Amino acid sequence: MDTTKPAEEPARSLNFIEQIVEEDNRTGKWDGRVHTRFPPEPNGYLHIGHAKSICLNFGLAEKYGGKCNLRFDDTNPSKEEVEYVESIQEDVRWLGFTWEERLFYASDYFEQLYQWAVQLIRAGQAYVCDLSGDEVREHRGTLTSPGRNSPYRDRTVEENLDLFARMKAGEFPDGSRTLRAKVDMASPNLNMRDPVLYRILRASHHRTGDTWCIYPMYDYTHGESDSIERITHSICTLEFENHRPLYDWFLDQLGIYHPQQIEFARLNLTYTVMSKRRLLELVKEKHVSGWDDPRMPTICGLRRRGYTPASIRSFCARIGVAKFDSVIDMAVLENAVREDLNRTAPRVLAVLRPLKVIIDNYPADQIDELDAVNNPEDVAAGTRKVPFSRELYIEQDDFREDPPKDYFRLAPGREVRLRYAYLVTCTSVVKDPKTGEVVELHCTYDPATRGGNTPDGRKVKGTIHWVSARESLPVELRLYDHLFGVADPDDVPKGADWKSNMNPKSLEVLRAGRVEPSLATAQAGDRYQFERQGYFCVDVKDSKPGALVFNRTVSLKDTWAKIEKSQGKKK
Ligand code: ATP
Ligand code: MG
User: Fold this and answer.
1) If you measure from the C-alpha of residue 87 to the centroid of ligand 2, how many angstroms do you get, rounded to a whole number?
2) Quick check: pTM over 0.85?
3) What is the CA radius of gyration of the chain?
């Protein structure tokens, strides 16, 4: 597990939730306690939006010496699976947070929730309703018209107690009855128009099995679970703002411990989608290879792509916490991992699209072991040896037969520096007689320039990377681009599907890559900077010793710096 903590974040002012917490601590509202929770529904894998919530909830507890629970909101057995329960724990841990012994399940509270429902019935605050789902909806009214009371609203307490007990006992078919709160069918807030508390559903639950055939609804379960766990600040996303009156209503009617619900803006990112329903659709329809496809915005996808926990935490710190919705540019996330890997990733030489180079004046049987710097950002990382020989590979892109102005790399008659090695001059070009494609270059090297120096002081502008043809290792390289071709996947012509915006070029596989021999011992998940190319990591699923597969985490090109620059210009 990677437990590196992010570099010191610059001091920043308190976000609005921290302000609330500090004010509460000052007034002693919760006796100085800070107790939050992260409450995922186990119906999919966690995504980067969840990471924002995780960093916020666990981060607050950490900052104020409090606690944060992990609680599965598992009230919907038809969509929930053990696979998700396990992946969620793995992802939260990987991000660097711990819930210690406080792992909870809403399903553990089913008995208590049932007892509280009975209490509400006794108090005349809940009733069994025989309307169908469609009829309930139809009675609810709209934003502009009030709802109508259910004809079952005035059942006696005795009748309600009897019917609810029989619902629980399995006497009625699925969907035939519900238990509803008796609030106000004329409320301007639709959530307050006698919301459903319980439904009849014969589905096996991943924890309670077939013990229950009635299941509590989310709104009824959530606040009560917060209360049981004595949460202080119940933090959720903005779409729950108009559920808050209901959250408060339940707790007030029951007269139990009452946490404070606080809403913040969910994370939205450009060029991707961020709802579990949609991510599941991409997986099921095989638009991606799985939840952990490195193009997915899931935590496991980002992990497989090569993101570090520290980079995700620093991204979450950077974007902050606000009360209004916004969309963050994907470049901000990419920049976070670029910054982190720039500090930590060892540099190596790798050629993505090889072009053979023969150094005609270099002896065929000779190998020169040259010193290469492992990480210019970290002197302690030291140096390693890379073998130089008569036959090399360079990047196809680093040669132009007819170089444009400002192109300082290799060209006929042109001299360049081979990184850590020698200066070489291109003397001739071999082409495929049929296609005219350049297949091989011949060069001469200057033995006096070992290490890349020019004793005579001559200026050579271009430096390119290379690997020895014989000693290098063949590898597969997977280059990723945005999953969607447009910033907002929902931006489609009327009637078209959001998936029509998927980027057909989001994955490019290069099967002829070559890397320096020091990578022979690379382990699954290891991260590197391929000099001049980007950050890559060894794929955890498909890479094998002798047949390495690398994922490109992010290119070196700093699109963020460009954005900042152009924004700076605008100002
Ligand atoms: P999705 O809409 O992606 O299916 P969800 O809200 O249904 O997500 P939950 O499992 O209920 O998923 O979410 C667990 C917690 O994570 C909740 O507190 C929720 O508010 C928070 N969360 C979910 N998506 C985001 C997001 N994009 N940004 C910030 N927090 C989020
Ligand atoms: Mg949800």
Assistant:
1) 16
2) yes
3) 31
